[in-house]
Design brief:
single chain
Length: 422
Amino acid sequence: MAWWFGTKLWKRVFLGLVLGVAFGLVVTQSMGPEAGEALLVKVKVIGDIFIRLIRMIVVPLVFFTLVSGIYAMGEPKKLGTIGIKAFALYLLTTFFANLIGLAMGTIFQPGKGVDLGGAVPKQMGEAQPIGERLMGIIPENPFQALVEGDILAVIFFALLLGVGILMAGETGKAAGKFFEAVAEGVLKMTHIIMELAPFGVFALIAYVAGTQGVATFTAILSLTLAVYLGAALHMLIVYGGLIRIVLNLPFVDFFRGILDPMMVAYSTSSSSATLPVTIRAAEENLGISKSVAGSVLPLGATINMDGTSLYLGIVALFTAQVFGYTLEPQHYVLIALTCALVSIGTAGVPSASLFLLAIVLEVFDVTPEHTALVVGFIFPFDRLLDMMRTVTNVTGDVTVATAVAKWEGELDEEVFRARPLS
């Protein structure tokens, strides 16, 4: 037990991931597809419990940490400077994600020679107009938003409440201390839940590996390579460049400090589910202050979807290559812009971004039938692609939080540069 709890969480999660893949493949091979899947469905219950626990904690975590983080700033105007810097960086990194995604789609030509004859069309409901999505940020009933887990609406309400408590001055101190205390308690709950991560990851990955297998990668090898390599380049060049060149901070120490959220993001495919461990790593491993971590990271988990934007660009080119659509230079610009817009506020749950594809494909007049075929072709193994783009999203959140903390004097560089004990 001492060895287990003394080992870094990311190492335990990685062990669970590796053992899960091996277990899933062995069970399917030894018991046969039907019997193997029946067993893996039972094992998956452990993973479902883990995800349910995390989803239980996400809304209170976002709400209380955001309110307490704003209160910790000490003055409302500081929220404005932090918010502007964070939002500008989110837009900038998304711009580079678009460029890399389109470059990967052009270089790898993932749709060339692909036959969708065996794909079952997957019809999608009408996409919500961007105007309605923006209007939905303002909750008509904040308590309903909390109950329904509408994160954007929760963030909006928490921001206003935090500012209101700050403006109340001495009168608001009691409320501010209350939110700080509850936020600390919620974070302790998060620590308890995250101890179950290795077991949850084992169960989730075992099910994916056993039911989809290695053949999943080979069926879409070019698309998989384009997404994984594009995401890796974005993280190393854009995020790594921002950390090392712009902020003059150790590149290796940054990625070492966020291994926990990266591993959890890869296994759960959910930015929202990873948020608790992201906040924990940002504060404890990177030395980011509570005020910045508690405000920038929940916002990033909702609006910063670089991996999604990069992925949608690649799949748009994949679609054009499969069906022979001719793309003019202006189409690439419109695809990049649309990918950036629709990625904002994407639900932080597995495969949510795939269903935004119809909006992007409208740029070059893809028919609804072709869109349904592409979604039907990709959907069965989208989880494997989603795992990597979620890692990109989460890494981007922490990168921006680190930059804002550095510029605002809210980064403890001694903690950032400290070597982990294990």
